[in-house]
Structures are given as structure tokens and as C-alpha cells.
Specification:
It is a single chain. By secondary structure, the chain is α/β, with parallel strands linked by helices. Helices cover about 25% and strands about 25% of the residues. The chain contains 2 helices and 5 strands. A 5-stranded mixed β-sheet has the order 1-2-3-4-5, with helices on one face. The radius of gyration is 14 Å and the shape is globular.
Amino acid sequence: SSTNFKRVLVTGHSLGAALSLLDAVYLPLHIKGVSFQTVLYGLPRVGNQAFADYVDAHVTSFTRINNKEDPIPIVPGRFLGFHHPSGEVHIQASGQWLSCPGE
């Protein structure tokens, strides 16, 4: 499929962030010639370790932002096999933004 767009921002919050992450994986596989940037807010864990590894390897320009003590980014639990991809920026209670490498 072709488009006149050259750059697309994929973004969402909470459940919208989870759906946007799926879009960030899906869209580049089906739309060529477009650069995608993904910025997600309050992303819950979406998939297992293999999914997180796939996102890390294939979704370029990816950032997930977590605000203070938001409980949504820690569900579902890791004990159930869910993992985050890399790319977290955590907004601390002090208001400081902290980049957290890895998962």
C-alpha cells in the first residue's frame, strides 16, 4: 500500500498505549516508505519476553513514559510471563525525568 505520509507518530495512553504498541509492530510491516515514531504513556505490559525482544529489535524510535506511581505499567504481573520492551522514561515524584535502560 502507498501513502503520501513520510512520518507517522503512534501514541496512546493506558489501554490506548497497549493498542498503539500493537500498531507500532503491525504498521511498519504493511506500510513501506514511512518512518514511525512511537511514544506511549502509562503502557501496561502487553506481551511475553519474545514479544518484548521483537519490539526492541524492530520498533525504532520507541519511548514509553510512566508517571510517578501509576499502577498500570506494572500490570499484568511479570510472574504471569509479561514483560515490557526497553525504552522507559520514568517521571519521578520530584518531577525529574529519568531514562531507564533495559526492560
